[in-house]
Specification:
It is built from four helices and seven strands; from the N terminus they run ααααβββββββ. The longest helix is centred in the N-terminal third of the chain and has 17 residues, at 17-33. It is of the alpha+beta class. 7% of the residues are buried. Among the domains are: 4-32, no CATH class; 96-152, no CATH class. The N and C termini lie far apart (105 Å).
Length: 161
Amino acid sequence: MVTSRKLRLLSRLLTGTGVTCLAATPYVFWRLTRVQPITADTTPPAHAAATAPLPNVQKRDLAWYAPLWERDLKQPPIPPAEDAKPAPTPVRPAPSVLATFVQREESYAHLVGQAGEAELLAVDDSLDGYRLVAIEPGRVQLELGGDRFWVEMPKPKGVEP
């Protein structure tokens, strides 16, 4: 019994792509039968020997082609230079600490940035690209690009411990 589903598949096969493939098949077989077989005869034809010299063909050992066979074609054509180093990031001076105000509820730090402007900051505020992570009496912890470090408040001049 022929179902409507089979008829739809058959109609798609007989129209469009199916017809093109069926029509192209005799042409492909005809072209394949006309291809000359490859022979190892390297003698030039008689008419070419008198007019043009043979090109200079270098015969190479198979080992010469080994790097081409071993090459991973998914990689870029030029391997990256191993001695190339990333450009150093410019060193920015860290903000200096003027004072810290530590309370139970919230802490603040009085910092001076690159431009010389003093700002009062809380935890998670930022100044000149540095993020303030923690505040303790006399020092603050800053973060720049994932690196954390402590900056201490300078000791007053003339006071000895």
